[in-house]
Amino acid sequence: MVKEHYSALIKTEAKRLGFLSCGISKAQFLEEEAPRLEQWLKNNMHGEMHYMENHFDKRLDPTKLVDGSKSVISLLLNYYPSETQNKESYKISKYAFGTDYHFVIKDKLKSLLHFIQDEIGEVNGRAFVDSAPVLDKVWAAKSGLGWIGKHSNLLTQQVGSFYFIAELIVDLELEYDTPSTDHCGSCTACIDACPTEAIVEPYMVDGSKCISYLTIELKDNIPIQFKGQMDSWMFGCDVCQDVCPWNKFSKPHNEPLFNPKPELLSMTKNDWEEITMETFNKVFKKSAVKRTKFSGLKRNIDFLKS
User: Fold this and answer.
1) 71-78/91-92 β-pairing
2) How far apart are CA 77 and CA 22, in angstroms?
3) Whole-structure pTM over 0.70, yes or no?
4) Cα separation of 71 and 306, whole Å?
5) How many CB atoms lie within 10 A of CB 4?
6) What tens digit of pLDDT does each residue of 177-211 get?
7) What is the mean pLDDT of residues 7-32?
8) Quick one: CA torsion of 17, 98, 266, 291, rounded to 10 degrees?
9) Are 141 and 181 in contact (CB under 8 A)?
10) CA 238/CA 255 separation, integer angstroms
């Protein structure tokens, strides 16, 4: 009964903090994922993301990340916007419209961990927001928050896929949720729509061909083979999510920090082509777009317009 009580307490507090949903799974070695990850790396589908090769063991085993860990608490936070960009614009992935999610979610996770410690006692744990070797989507799926779709994003029937995934890994035993079932069926909308054919087979994305990778992670010049295939995306890409039938159920978030600056929505291709460092710093203050830097965004825009 104690485990059930603690789990219910944590889920109630997660909802109060604004999380979309919360699921819990047992912290243990991800046996099924090990060969998949190994093959993906061997096929160089991570491109220049060499950090993906590091900490292979930790990526698959949370007990190597947090001593004595017993539970992975997975959380979803909605970022689906109520407004989108001007139609005549180069495009930015919806997740980057507002304040960098790392800041927003880290604060919520710390609050949740403090709540657990206050209510339950001495619990050790760590908060993770895709900045450490944790397979977020796998843990979220294991804890019943959704299934991993053919585009390799987490999907739920109720709210689609426009949300962030984060975790608390704690040394507290809790009641564990069961995985949900796959509801992609025979649909291939994401595979058919991918502008660069990065979804090489159902459930397998070649990261080195993905527009998100090309516009954010890749530091060299974008390979010439992708000319005319980028679909006006200058930072990230939402195509596989935009075409997914389950995203008909996406509802706008209610996190003020994720609201975009008005300029971001109204700027045209011409405005972007003439963007100055000053405008970049103003529009993207505290934004995830800062990752690509002014020079990176300019590189992407130049590639799209030439």
Assistant:
1) unpaired
2) 9
3) yes
4) 50
5) 10
6) 999 999 999 999 999 999 999 999 999 999 999 99
7) 95
8) -160
9) no
10) 20
For residues 159 and 250, the answer to whether their CB atoms sit within 8 Å is yes
Radius of gyration of the chain (CA): 20
Annotated binding-site residue? 93: no
Domain count for the chain: 1
At 16, give phi and psi (nearest 5°): -60, -35
In the chain, how many H helices and how many E strands? 12, 10
- Helices 2-16 and 101-120, packing angle to 10 deg: 140
Q: Is 22 labelled a binding residue?
A: no
Determine whether 266 is exposed, middle or buried from the number of CB atoms within 10 Å of its CB (0-12, 13-18, 19+): exposed
- Residue 209's nearest CA partner among 221, 198, 223 is 198
Q: Dig out the tokens for 135 from the structure.
A: 């397979």
Residue given tokens 């939402």 in the structure block: 238
**For 288, which DSSP code?**
G
Containing structural domain, residue 152:
1-306
* 59 marked among binding-site residues: yes
Type of residue at 224:
I
Q: Which residues are marked as active site?
A: 130
The alpha carbon of 17 is separated from its chain's Cα centroid by a whole number of angstroms, namely 19
Whether 184 has a binding-site annotation, put simply, is: yes
Confidence of residue 4 (pLDDT cuts 50, 70, 90): very high
Q: How far apart are CA 113 and CA 292, in angstroms?
A: 31
